[in-house]
Amino acid sequence: MSSGPGRLGAGPAATRRPPSYGEGAAAVALVATTAEVLAHPELDEDLLAPWERQRLAGIRVPARRDDVVAARLLLRLCASRVTGLPPRGVAPAQRCPGCGRDGHGRPYLPDHPGLGVSYSHADGLAAAVVGPGPVGIDVEPLTRRPGPVSVLRRLLPHDEVDAARAGPDPGPALLRLWVRREALFKAGTDGVRLTEWTDRGRAAVVALAGADGARRALSPAPAPSPAPTPPSGR
Ligand SMILES: [Zn+2]
């Protein structure tokens, strides 16, 4: 990445937070390329817990492994920004709502029960959010086209799928519908504000559930980046 490391959330607003938070505390959401995260000076793979590294060992595709590492590190950076602790001082855990076991399923911060956390990764992209109350985030490459429609109609509200398909640009519309649903699903509730945007510099579509106002903490996009060329370009 030609923008260099250190630009993630490097605004004056993203420095120290008081150690207490409650209603109205600031949330932090960050979107970055996997390469940006892995080059970030505050982050290193050795921040990951032994149980996380154990899970990584099962991922055979190096690029996918990098995406997972990046998302987990970005989550620590968000938690660090919100709590004022160093990234090494926050220890995310996961618990599965299905089987009740630790180590997979919904992420949370055992030492900060008032904060919601969520992360997402896709091809070369990572996103994470930490903030008061339920939060969810999803990132997908701008060029991704979810489908087939039969699957979408099973997972998403029929009327919304049909409306997206009937519009002038069904592919991107279905993608936005998809990331919004994913973010709400991760938040565990539909009763939160949903924001969705396109990060053109990173060729990413992002949806954020909850964490009102967190979008302003996003880092600026890297200036010169590979142009998002559609696969069927002229
Ligand atoms: Zn489970």
TrEMBL record:
Residues 1-21, 213-234 are annotated as: Disordered. It comes from the Bacteria. This is Predicted protein. Residues 221-234 have a biased composition (Pro residues). One of its GO terms (molecular function) is holo-[acyl-carrier-protein] synthase activity. It comes from Streptomyces filamentosus NRRL 15998. Keywords: Transferase. Pfam families: ACPS. Residues 134-194 form the 4'-phosphopantetheinyl transferase domain.
